[in-house]
Records
---
Amino acid sequence: QAPREMPQELEEEFTLGGLIPLEHFYVDDTLRGRGTHYTYSRSQIDSVLTGITRSLAGIKEAFSAAERGSPFPHLPRDLWPLAAMWKYRDRLQGARVIVFGSMEPWAECAALQLNASSVTTVEYNELTYDHPSISTIRVHALESMVRSGHQWDVALSFSSFDHDGLGRYGDPVDPDGDIKAMSWMRTCITVGGTALVTVPIGPDLVVWNLHRRYGSVRLPRLLAEWEVEEKEGWFEDMLGRNTNFRRTYEPVLVLRNTKSREDGQVPPQSAPFVAVTAEEWDQLPAGTDSNMGAGAGGAAANIGGTTAASRSKTKAGDEA
């Protein structure tokens, strides 16, 4: 069962000696310790693929309409990860893709629709995704594969690593679980490989055991081993804007692995910021709960009654 209280002896490490505030919002996604098993049949996955196709058509239209500008400020936030996958589709073509954290296979299906050669999904809990190009593994299996030299070309992690180390999904309680997960992801992909990652951005915060929010203190630690190539949907004001922690702001971080497993750390390079005011942020389309969003040229894809491009992990305590 997910731990209801943060271990007192670890509080100083979780808060970095009090630098990061602590809030509480308890969620147990372990089914009281029994574990979960999410299953998608081939017909259900085919339905997801159809919905993703419609949504990608709308995103393509949005990119065309934006011409040289960024379409991200005009798209529902639910669509930002899928829009980033479309923008960097050349890196997905023919690629071996690994997905970290999944409860529904929208990212896997999007990668396949953008011509990835195969997709491997890593989860703490059990998954069955019935498709010949999608394989699912548990964390211990990933460790064995990496140690034997297996690597992928592209990694995807949408709203996943901010949970690592909080025990919510049955993962080990670890103050640095998120940073260790990011390090593991780097060892999984080839030198020059790309990772698309989203985590909640804003003033630093640990919400036990819901998630973390990353600001000026922890975000640099999270990205220390990576070159930051771009930040899609990035609004500089949000780093200091103390919003409701259940209404997350999650731009897409485009990261590149510039070192081998044996290399030392490479200082991250900051991508240019696009500054907007907090008032402008409030006017951005937020998307919807029941479909892919009515933006992106009017394309909306209701996939099995769930938001296909919202969050890889269902955030029971989060607001859209």
Note: The two ends are 26 Å apart (CA to CA).
---
Amino acid sequence: MSDDPDKGRRELRSAVRLRNRAVAEREASRLARPDQPSKSRTLGHASKSKSAVTSTPFGIAPTKRNAATGQGEDVTAEQWCGPFSVARQMIAAREEARTKREAEQRDREHHPLDEVVLKVEEDKKRKANPSMLWKGKIDETTGRSNYYMKRKKRFARQKEGMSMSRSLKVPTLYKLCVDFLVENFEFVEGLGAGIGADIRRSICESLVAKGKMNGAAFDTIAEVGVETLEIIDCAEVTQDQLCIALDSLIPSGLQALILNHAGRAFGPKAVDSIVSSSPNSLFALSIGGAYLLKDADASALIEATAPTLSSIEFKACPLIGPSFCSSIGENFASSVGRNCLLELSLEDIPLTKDCLLTIGSASDALQ
């Protein structure tokens, strides 16, 4: 009597195993290849209506009688053919609904106030969802501190200004003269000492914008007798060419030297030309992008021009450092009895805290 419960459980497990195997054999081919029609066959040991296991998500699929033939066969309304078939059916239904919705929108008559209504609805959504008003914050420090970003923006402004000037029906007489001069600049031997710094800067900007700022153009602009030498872009100017120009300009009374994007043009040789020139009457010095200018050379330059120099500006000169700062603090102190420094601008210069303290060590160096 004690063996009967164990025997019953073994028989039950055997029956369940056989039934599961029958269901697997019946449904395996259809689930593995849902794109092919399944062959209906009746297994003697597994009946679909009596099986406790079904492959449909909601149980046995509903059936409907074929009214066209009048036969008594049961035809499934929508067969469950596996997850891939269901996914395809869902995608097709979604595409059909979208096509229908777009067709309805096209067929709908346009009303003049539709745009106003859409605008009001959008404003309501933005008020209900403040996150829709969020905008990424642009890193302004990168655009301000990067010297070459300023160059890029300047070129963009120049191109925009040129395009706007072309669109104007009647350009100014000044613009006509500058454009005519730049177009024929290769035939210009000299501008004359009476041409001011503003006009020379406009000509230089136009030459740079049109890609005509070369060595010959530099020689024409840097003629003897000018008080201000301002070059917007020195990319096409060599250091030897700049040295020759400085050797003749400084003794003749050059007062302001402004070189943007000096690059290879302003290096040790150019510094030697300024230091060795006499008399030296420079009161404004602005150098930008001089990657060849070393710390010792910058210090010697400040020391040589300190008696007359009152405005200093250095931008994107990566090699200057402690010696340059010490030279400023030593040569512009009131105890030295030289000219006072009125303006000092250092931008994109890798100076440490100690270097800045060196500049301020002479309390009256900056006034």
Note: The radius of gyration is 43 Å.
---
Amino acid sequence: MVPYKQGVGSASGNYMQVFATPPSVGTSYDWTSGGFFSQRSYGVQADIEENVAPKFTNLPTTKTYPDTTPTTTIMAVSVTDDNTGDLTTLSVTIATHTDKFSVSSNEITTKTGWTWSVGTYDVTVAVTDQCGNAASSTVTIVIENSAPDISNLPSSSDLPEDVTSETNLKDLTVSDVQTYTCAISTMEPSSGNTRFTLKQAPGTSVYSIYSTENPTFSYSLVPQYKINVTCTDEYSLTSWGEFTVNIKPNKPPELDKLPATVSVSAKTTTIGTEVFDASATDPDSSQVFYNKTCSPDPCPFEINGGTRTFKKNLTTHSEQK
């Protein structure tokens, strides 16, 4: 403010206007109705700064995320302005992918209802000051595809060599955001290709490893098979896991009471009399079949289950079993 100068006459006077409502910037008003109140003249010096556009301090940038972990908050945008009077008035908006992302209080977030999807999204961000000066930059949001996860491989299972029925050996636990398919990729040895299969049970999405019907395993020839399983998603990203099948040899049953010697009386022993109970156990099966050989032949005994009985009259026979 510079000192005032006392003027002469109304031409150099000061006028006062009373407004019913506060005046707005940029609006013109009629001062003809203003009231004269003094002849003082004033001078005001104003230093005018050029108004420049605001700017971002942390853009452009790239944010990368896996498709398995949806993220709500992408980032907080930082802005500044060389005109300090504009700082509190800066406004941040986005101009692209507004159906997927939004910005509030300078924070970029994902929109409710949008499905987190694989892709690259170039989001244009703009900042504007009170004078309309603006700047823009980009946040590149990359959502990367993740391979299917086979969480329960590697693993193994034992299988009897005398198995004949189709047998479920392993249900695979696979997870992926994308649609996937699984298959047996390699088999060691290759002879296992006809003995094992990978399939989904009817009405389910679970992949399971099966031995085929009547696979004819032989422990002495191939005691172990290694099955490599791959799962591939719709973006052709693949993961794999190994399943090992150990063939268990079929063990013979064990006779619990043999060898043994039994003496019987040819005179007093009648046909059908039980001579000996030959019980047996089998580690591979609960069902045991009995047979016999006899020396000398013809044999005066028969076997029923594990029980030996007379089948004809004896005179001089004695048998060691």
Note: The longest strand covers residues 134-144.
---
Amino acid sequence: MSATFIAIASSLASLAVSLGLAYAAGYPGIGNQIADRADVGPVIVWAAAAAIVLQWIVFIPAFVFQTEKYYDLTGSITYVSVTVGTLAYRLAYSNPSLQLNVRPLVSSVLVVLWALRLGSFLVKRIMRAGKDGRFDEVKPFFARFLAAWTIQGLWVFLTLFAVLVINTTTVESPLRWNDYLGWAVWAVGFAIEVISDEQKTAFNRLQTGKWVEIGLWRYSRHPNYFGEIVLWTGQFIVGTSVYAGGQWAAVLSPLFVTLLLTKVTGIPMLEKRADEKWGGDPEYQRYKRAVSVLVIMPRRQISENGDANYGCTTQGDRPPTSELRQCHYVRH
């Protein structure tokens, strides 16, 4: 099967999945229940389409000039545009009462805050680096490069799914405990992501040639991704106050982010690069055994021979299987 065929199929699948999920979550939703106005269809469907069309618009000059420098910037602009667009439509044509729109207002502001912060961080990074190696093999090929941009549209929509449902549902509900819980979870995740990004940037300026092992990076090999997963889980929790019917598909938002970062792009790619660079270093191997790959948690103590210390009197060796029930990991 040719790479071109796979790329075309990926683009079509991304479009179909986005529109299909949006349509499933469009009822009860604004856009098709507005009195005295034309039936424009569920607004969330238009939001899904816009997320992909925006990528296609920027893809054209990106392909002509063979550059990926505006890929992450376009993603951030799409997050903001789709979120603000659905919120504005809600306020203008569906329910203009600010008092009854605290939930979508707060959740949308949090998305904009996150997108502007992360977008500026990624743009600065690629401007310093001059390129993004992920696109070296696909950039010269129209269909494959287009697929990368189309998939980003799907990525934006699925990540935003929970918030888009909050912004477009017609279900009314006063603020509840799960709204405050969700926003608190979001704040924790956002703080983790920001702190870990800043710590990594500061460490890389030292140009030590080593892996990051300071601050939160002492307790997770990818704390920024952990923060990302936590914050989108928080947005989903907020939406549980209003989800109805097919809108519960919004659970795909945190599930998609988790799957993408742990199984597809983020962690697998970075772990592979790290293994290629430092895999032969015994200190790095000890670091991998001691530090959680994702969740921030206490480090395992590692013996001199690189084995985990299980808190058993076995002279530093891993205890026999029969003794494991009486042993536990020693953490600090």
Note: The longest helix spans residues 177-205.
